[in-house]
């Protein structure tokens, strides 16, 4: 039985459709990336899953319960831009969150200390949040989301606003946390998703463009491909445009001076393209024959 089952979820604001019928299931213990560009509908989706935003239609069921049953106690949620009470200390804030989830004072204090330790904030726990760095605030947000030991953790862009060091710290922490609980985190960076998750749900414009395990998507999109870069000259642009009519080219994406061709036969394509470029004296900068990657898939979906 999946931990979370989402069926045909929609969110509409007036005439604007933010989420346009998404369905997916999440198995317990998985780490799932909700990947997509700005405006894809990630935050809207996570807020609906967190019970903060009523869906326009569709169903969410948690742990086999009937759709619509309240499962908020089993959730931890870190919003995209968490707002803290800056006058509180980190410890006061996590204790406050623990009490909101229904814990008594003593349990709240114990669990908060454990959560703060978990995220490496024990030593700063008594300092005011106003003096925390961005990375520390994000780790505090994680402590708040974890303190009641949720079965499902929803994290909205947990690393996007951080500098490389803060990002690394939080990614390392997520790598540990994902061993203990089921995690869905959103990101617009494919690399983040590839680094720690098992499954990817790729969203664009309110719909799911692709979903599956990382290895399935990698194999599915590992197609023979040729990448070409030329000088930015009209002659080269015209030549690239003309190549799309070659019989061995299955699909193409061309922007000024850069072309990516899915090909049916890499060897044939390599020979013909290089010969022709030589004959016509095309100012080639780079030629690459290989396999397409998830990055190519992501760019195609995002660019469409
Ligand atoms: N309260 C709202 N009223 C009207 N439109 C909204 C509202 N909230 C979100 N939207 C629209 O819904 C779409 C999806 O927004 P959402 O915030 O879910 O995207 P996102 O994938 O989280 O983007 P980002 O990467 O920028 O955080 C956007 O076009 C946005 O403008
Ligand atoms: Mg968002």
Automatic annotation (TrEMBL):
PROSITE patterns in alphabetical order: ABC_TRANSPORTER_1, ABC_TRANSPORTER_2
Domain of life: Bacteria
InterPro entries: AAA+_ATPase (IPR003593), ABC_transporter-like_ATP-bd (IPR003439), ABC_transporter-like_CS (IPR017871), DrrA1/2-like_C (IPR025302), P-loop_NTPase (IPR027417)
Alphabetic keyword roster: ATP-binding, Nucleotide-binding, Transport
Protein species of origin: Paenibacillus borealis
Record domain ABC transporter: where: 4-230
Presence of keyword Thylakoid: no
Family: Belongs to the ABC transporter superfamily.
Protein name: ABC transporter ATP-binding protein
GO molecular function, a single term: ATP binding
């Amino acid at each position: 039985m999946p931990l979370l089952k989402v069926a045909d979820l929609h969110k509409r604001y007036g005439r604007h459709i933010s989420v346009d019928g998404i369905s997916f299931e999440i198995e317990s213990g998985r780490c799932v990336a909700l990947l997509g560009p700005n405006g894809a509908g990630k935050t809207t989706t996570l807020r609906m899953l967190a019970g903060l935003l009523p869906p326009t239609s569709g169903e969410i069921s948690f742990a086999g319960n009937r759709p619509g049953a309240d499962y908020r106690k089993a959730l931890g949620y870190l919003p995209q831009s968490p707002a803290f009470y800056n006058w509180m200390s980190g410890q006061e804030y996590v204790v406050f969150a623990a009490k909101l989830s229904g814990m008594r004072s003593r349990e709240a204090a114990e669990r908060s200390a454990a959560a703060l330790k978990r995220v490496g904030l024990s030593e700063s726990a008594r300092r005011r949040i106003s003096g925390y760095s961005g990375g520390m605030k994000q780790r505090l947000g994680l402590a708040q989301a974890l303190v009641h030991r949720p079965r499902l953790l929803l994290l909205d862009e947990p690393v996007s606003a951080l500098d490389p060091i803060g990002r690394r710290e939080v990614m390392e922490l997520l790598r540990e946390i994902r061993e203990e609980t089921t995690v869905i985190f959103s990101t617009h960076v494919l690399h983040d998703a590839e680094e720690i998750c098992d499954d990817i749900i790729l969203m664009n414009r309110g719909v799911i463009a692709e979903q599956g395990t990382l290895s399935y998507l990698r194999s599915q999109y590992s197609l023979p491909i040729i990448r070409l870069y030329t000088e930015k000259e009209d002659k080269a642009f015209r030549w690239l445009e003309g190549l799309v009519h070659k019989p061995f080219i299955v699909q193409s994406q061309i922007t000024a001076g850069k072309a990516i061709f899915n090909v049916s036969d890499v060897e044939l394509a390599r020979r013909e393209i290089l010969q022709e470029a030589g004959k016509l004296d095309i100012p080639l900068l780079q030629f690459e024959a290989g396999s397409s990657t998830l990055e190519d898939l992501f760019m195609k979906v995002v660019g469409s």
